[in-house]
Specification:
This protein has 3 domains: about 100 residues; about 80 residues, no CATH class; about 70 residues, Glutaredoxin (3-Layer(aba) Sandwich), CATH 3.40.30. It has 13 helices and 4 strands. Strands 2-1-3-4 form a 4-stranded mixed sheet, sandwiched between helices. Strand 3 and strand 4 form a beta hairpin. Helix 9 runs antiparallel to helix 10. It is globular and about 65 Å long.
Length: about 260
């Protein structure tokens, strides 16, 4: 990610934080805008062209989206295109990120992170489903509809909107990659870090509470736990937060011992 994009993302995220009237319709419109911009190299190029006056880019937004979206959506899009982006793809990513964050804001009462993670595990455990959703073949809208049917009654409206919308516009990304990124964005929007915990057996409520408290103290921010049960770790835990891995599993210690004995 270029420095220009890093600064631009900070500006768009701040704009969302200051916005009023952020609801699921705004998130839905932002996802639709990301698809429209991502599907048109001409439009994405024009909106991300830092050589063009900012006012000209704002006028393009007004002409393409203005009458079709809510004022809050239009304002966020206007802020996005007014920034300097390293590449047109970065602008598309940023609009999509705004959509995910907006859904997290709008559905604040739901555990969107946990629901996205659970759906990601469902996909991981079902190769046929992963292939169906990730294949380049087939209608993208139909894939989104499939996700909506799978999550109906099992996940919140915000989670369903995020998952279905991302599947409609994979842009060469794998399904689990899309869902993992969305989980991180939702947690970040809510001021939390995501810890993926691999354990040999499900954690009890007491174990989860102790681990959450320990990680929160270590990292200085609230931590949300996503647990994967994997009997091959034998015992102990393996925890990953972003690029930081804490491996206290028995399988890791045994592997280390075997390596030492092998000389």
């Amino acid at each position: 990610m270029g420095s220009a994009t890093t600064q631009a993302l900070a500006a768009t995220t701040a704009a969302l934080g200051a916005a009023t009237g952020v609801d699921l319709d705004v998130a839905r419109e932002l996802f639709a805008a990301a698809r429209a911009v991502g599907d048109s190299s001409q439009l994405s190029g024009a909106l991300a062209d830092s050589a063009a006056p900012a006012e000209a880019r704002r006028q393009v937004v007004a002409a393409v989206f203005g009458a079709a979206v809510k004022p809050t959506t239009a304002s966020l899009l206007t802020t996005a295109v007014a920034q300097r982006w390293s590449t047109p793809d970065d602008l598309v990513d940023a609009i999509e990120e705004l959509a995910v964050r907006a859904a997290a804001v709008a559905d604040a009462g739901s555990d969107v992170e946990a629901e996205l993670f659970a759906f990601s595990r469902t996909v991981a455990d079902n190769p046929e489903l992963e292939l169906a959703l990730g294949s380049r073949l087939g209608d993208s809208a139909a894939k989104g509809t499939l996700v909506e049917s799978l999550l109906k009654g099992r996940a919140s409206e915000g989670t369903t909107l995020i998952a279905a919308s991302l599947i409609r516009q994979p842009r060469e990304r794998r399904v689990r990659q899309l869902l993992s990124r969305a989980t991180r964005l939702v947690s970040d929007q809510r001021g939390r870090a995501v810890a993926t915990v691999v354990a040999a057996a499900p954690l009890s409520d007491a174990q989860r509470d102790r681990l959450t408290a320990a990680l929160t103290k270590r990292y200085g921010t609230r931590v949300s736990l996503n647990t994967i049960v994997d009997p091959t770790v034998v015992g102990g835990l393996r925890v990953q937060i972003a690029d930081d891995v804490i491996d206290a599993s028995v399988s890791s210690r045994l592997a280390d011992l075997r390596q030492r004995l092998a000389g």
